[in-house]
Write a structure and sequence with these properties.
Largest sheet: 7 strands, mixed
Mean pLDDT: 77
Strand content: 5-15%
Strand order of the largest sheet: 2-3-4-1-5-6-8
Number of strands: 9
Low-confidence stretches: 1-30, 193-201, 609-639
Number of domains: 4
Structural class: alpha/beta
Distance between the termini: 83 Å
């Protein structure tokens, strides 16, 4: 049966698409059009988007959604082409938020054309999207990507034959090497001018099903605006619940009852339609692939990299060197932040006497300090994004996810989550930024929720010093208790995620292992630059403002922390602090820990030095500290502070499981673009922190 896009009148000849005279492209002045890129994950769609738009692109969120929206533009002559990189999906069935967004855009926005990106080395799998888009009636261009890898695997692909058989414009490209991009741009520019798919004759996948004609007739007579009758018909036969609900409301009751009576059961419909699509693919695939003279063999490294045991060891090694590489890449990117740090005092001194002292201190300690931290974090994100881009472009990241998927599945995540969690040990900000490698939104959200639970290096340093000072020889027991509680905390958080956030979502990983290839450095640079731009827009100035506010609270009204606004606020919280055994000093230190774990030690040194005539942290860092502990003077220090071991234990547990620092919260907001999610995370971590502190205080009262 021939297909008629957008219910166009039938053509006179089934081969008229091939016999039509070619039309030369003559763009209209200042004309613009909208193009959508669609394709399955790992087909190189985002690489193609980067090559088409370069740095001329914008990343935001879809309206009312938390999924990332990528849009850019490219000029061809006097014509501006707006390009949308739709989320990678395996189908257009609304099983996930990504699939819903992709199909809603195609149906409701009605782009001028759709570029379906197909992996030339995985044709049978990736051509499935052509079968999904075909019934929509939108003009299609097929981009046969990764032609170089297909050639290396021995595939000989005749794109001209495929174009003759289907009538679909088919362009062979290698996006990572910028090959075929000019030809693709010319094809995109001709959409709406050259031969339209309304006159193409090509069998629709699913049109030969016995119920197709009957359902199509009823649907065509009651077609919702913007929808294609063939697409709705096939989706009804497939058992798409969202389409069925829409048509049940739109159609007259008698018509819907008639359609419903002939529809197959959902499971049977899904299998039948999927089979017809693959039969359709194989029909055209036989003419597309001329020969395959090479049998793919996996190399020894790949065998080891996917081994259940060796693969994990190799993965951990790659992650270790990846973290080192991220630091090395970050160093030049952090130079502006380091410069701001070292210039703060000279700038403050230079301004002394010219402007009021308070303004000098604001610039030197508050503003320059905030800029320094933000610029350093910005450099970190650039380094991590570069490493992630390299691993993903090279093809190794899929192996890493494959190896760790069984382990990560135990906490409701899939294999790709291992990298953000490992990065979290270095810095929670890096863990949050690394969640970008996860394809589905729900899994990314789950990883974002768990990553801040991982104690970062700054928190390790802070807790280690506090435990050493307050517990001495009992420190190993406290560390063991923290590790045990962390496991319980992760398990409970995972259970909450599975019951609520991941409800109805499988954590299983569906992924093919792409062949290894040399990464495209231009694409990696664009990826890293975009991640930095996103953080700059969404989190950078939030951190700067927070640092200024904290400085204001510490400096005013008298320039001393003892009678500052922050100290007054801490003393007002002392009533609540008594529940967990804290005085006002610990209340202030806990608040400061929210802003920066590393800065907490300095704050403790200032606060305790002001209230106890002892250089606490100079003592803790001394080489003879253990001898000091054995001498018995440690008890006198605790007596001078007026703190009990139970209070110290409570503070250790509360700060270890405390809120992530404001920079991490800013990174969460930058990734989700959701104030609700960020606030929800804040409240969850805060509640857990207080609960942990309260329980530890009760245990401390019983033990010490």
């Amino acid at each position: 049966m021939s297909m008629n896009y957008k219910e166009a009148p039938p053509v006179n000849s089934p081969n008229s698409c091939c016999e039509s005279p070619k039309q030369e492209f003559t763009p209209s002045v200042h004309r613009s059009k909208t193009i959508a890129l669609v394709g399955q994950p790992n087909t190189g769609k985002s690489t193609l988007f980067n090559m088409l738009t370069g740095g001329n692109q914008h990343v935001g969120n879809w309206p009312g959604k938390t999924v990332e929206k990528k849009e850019g533009k490219v000029s061809v002559g006097d014509e501006t082409i707006h390009v949308y990189d739709l989320p990678g999906t395996y189908s257009l069935t609304a099983n996930s938020l990504e699939e819903t967004i992709t199909r809603d855009f195609l149906i409701k926005e009605q782009p001028d054309a759709v570029v379906v990106v197909v992996d030339a080395g995985q044709l049978e799998r990736s051509m499935y999207m052509i079968a999904e888009v075909a019934p929509l009636g939108i003009q299609m261009i097929v981009a046969l990507n990764k032609m170089d890898l297909a050639a290396n695997q021995g595939y000989k692909i005749d794109s001209d034959a495929f174009e003759r058989m289907t009538g679909l414009v088919t362009i062979p490209i290698t996006a990572s090497r910028n090959k075929g991009i000019p030809e693709l741009l010319k094809a995109i520019a001709k959409t709406g001018i050259a031969e339209s798919p309304e006159s193409l004759s090509m069998a629709l996948p699913g049109a030969d099903l016995p119920q197709y004609d009957s359902v199509l007739k009823s649907v065509r007579n009651n077609l919702p605006p913007g929808y294609s009758a063939p697409w709705l018909t096939i989706k009804l036969l497939e058992g798409d619940t969202e389409v069925a609900s829409m048509m049940a409301e739109h159609l007259p009751r008698d018509s819907w009852a008639e359609i419903k009576s002939i529809l197959p059961p959902v499971d049977e419909g899904q299998m039948t339609v999927a089979k017809t699509r693959y039969d359709w693919i194989r029909k055209y695939l036989s003419g597309l692939v001329v020969s395959k003279s090479f049998r793919f063999k996996r190399n020894r490294f790949d065998v080891a990299a996917t081994h259940p045991v060796w693969g994990k060891l190799i993965g951990l090694g790659v992650l270790f060197f990846g973290i080192v590489a991220a630091y090395l890449v970050s160093i030049p990117l952090m130079i502006p932040g380091l410069a701001a740090f070292f210039l703060a005092n000279p700038l403050q001194q230079a301004l002394t006497g010219i402007i009021p002292t308070s303004i000098c201190n604001l610039i030197g300690d508050g503003l320059m300090g905030g800029l320094s931290i933000s610029l350093i974090i910005l450099g970190f994100i650039g380094g991590v994004s570069t490493v992630l881009g390299f691993l993903e472009n090279s093809g190794y990241l899929a192996r890493l996810a494959y190896c760790f998927d069984p382990f990560m599945g135990r906490i409701g995540l899939h294999g790709k989550s291992i990298m953000p969690l490992i990065m979290g040990f270095v810095c929670n900000i890096l863990g949050v930024a690394a969640s970008r490698v996860i394809d589905t939104w729900k899994q990314r959200l789950a990883t974002l929720a768990i990553a801040p639970i991982i104690p970062c290096k700054g928190l390790f340093i802070l807790v280690s010093v506090i435990i050493a000072v307050f517990f001495g020889a009992q420190a190993p027991i406290i560390f063991f208790s923290l590790a045990l509680v962390t496991i319980v905390y992760l398990s409970v958080t995972s259970l909450i995620l599975q019951k609520h956030i991941l409800k109805g979502d499988s954590s299983g990983l569906i992924m093919e292992l792409p062949p290894y290839h040399m990464p495209n450095w231009r694409n990696i640079r664009i990826f890293a630059t975009l991640r930095m731009k996103i953080f700059y827009r969404r989190g950078f100035w939030f951190i700067v403002a927070t640092c200024v506010i904290v400085w204001f609270g510490i400096y005013f009204p008298g320039g001393s922390i003892d009678n500052s606004y922050l100290a007054r606020f801490g003393k007002k919280l002392e009533f609540f602090g008594q529940v967990v055994g804290w005085d006002w000093r610990f209340c202030i230190i806990f608040i400061i820990a929210v802003f920066s774990k590393e800065a907490t030690l300095g704050a403790m040194a200032v606060i305790f030095s002001a209230t106890v005539n002892t250089d606490l942290f100079g003592m803790a860092m001394d080489q003879d500290f253990q001898a000091y502990l054995r001498s018995g003077d440690f008890g006198s220090f605790l007596a001078n502070t007026g703190l009990s071991k139970a209070s110290a234990l409570s503070f250790v547990f509360a700060v270890f499981f405390s809120l992530p620092c404001v920079a991490t919260l800013a990174a969460i907001f930058a990734e989700t673009r959701s104030l609700i999610i960020t606030t929800g995370a804040f409240l969850y971590y805060f509640s857990v922190s207080i609960i942990m502190g309260g329980l530890a205080y009760l245990v401390g009262l019983m033990v010490f």
